[in-house]
Predict the 3D structure of the following.
Amino acid sequence: MTLIAEPKSMQFEQPLPLRSGASVRGYDLAYETYGTLNADKSNAVLVCHALNASHHVAGVYPGQDNSEGWWDTMIGPGKPVDTDRFFVIGVNNLGSCFGSTGPMHRNPDTGKVYGADFPVVTVEDWVDAQARLLDRLGIAQLAAVMGGSLGGMQALSWTLQYPDRVRHAAVIASAPNLTAENIAFNEVARRAIVTDPDFHGGHFYEHGVVPQRGLRIARMIGHITYLSDDVMNEKFGRQLRSGLDIRYTTQDIEFQIESYLRYQGDKFSEYFDANTYLLITRALDYFDPASRHDGNLSKALAAATARFLLVSFTTDWRFSPKRSREIVKALLENRRNCSYAEIDAPHGHDAFLLDDPRYMSVVRAWFDRIAAEFQA
């Protein structure tokens, strides 16, 4: 059965205090829901999205080709997160460019487009905004919160900010903070954007232009980190784009992998907002719950009471299994209920989005146990 998605929006007038000391008021949050909330509202699952995703988690939009949600392999009728049993909620983060209020929208206090003046947001701020939306939906406690990559960081933060509101948390292909190497990749991508002549200090909307060159390079850098060396070699190897003859050029495309990266960059630059990219990558950089506990992750996770599932992938070098095991160790030190699966998959970081049968079976079994709790 095809799951039909319906975009929704909810407005919040009350200011949302941010960790930076700033606040945002008069903002909208775009969201979608799938399935039916049961009578005692005990079957709600919140799905948190990663960098370039949105609230469109599952299903399709009627009459639109290729409109499947970004985690449609995972969520839907009969799927690991079964919408015949669970009420699933996807929320677009504040500062994004897919419907929630962000840099492309007008500041209600000035009447002008935010642009570069949109305040810096953190993972914790996003969780606070999501909690407000759940309040409006009348959901006091989640059966589960889940996410991959940056979404996994939000899921982890939920268990620390609102421990009484989360019974289970799935943290997939994620980490307790970014390594210096990861921060470095984000910084290079940001420099590509801010040094684009069309960036105009983040106020490019006023000039009627888009810093597409910077966005292309940022996406190319990011995409390299999402794939494993094995996958790139298998898909492209050293194949030349124009056949067998080397053209001896330093500026044109020679290899198939170059063509692929440029295609990905071009596509990304047509739909993603440059200021949003800066905001989201900085939120990634800032996330570090252990920093408030002298770097002690075990102390940081002591506040969590949820039951956890952590999943990592062997070829994911951006969020390596080592980082997931750090979280597992800290949870076990606090005697928390924790399941861990390390999937031997060749796809790199993108594996969390793919339909690997072992991965899907782990998640399905975990959610089967959750469903048994409220169906008993």
User: Anything to note?
Assistant: The domain at 7-177+289-372 is CATH 3.40.50.1820 (Rossmann fold). The first helix runs from residue 123 to 136.
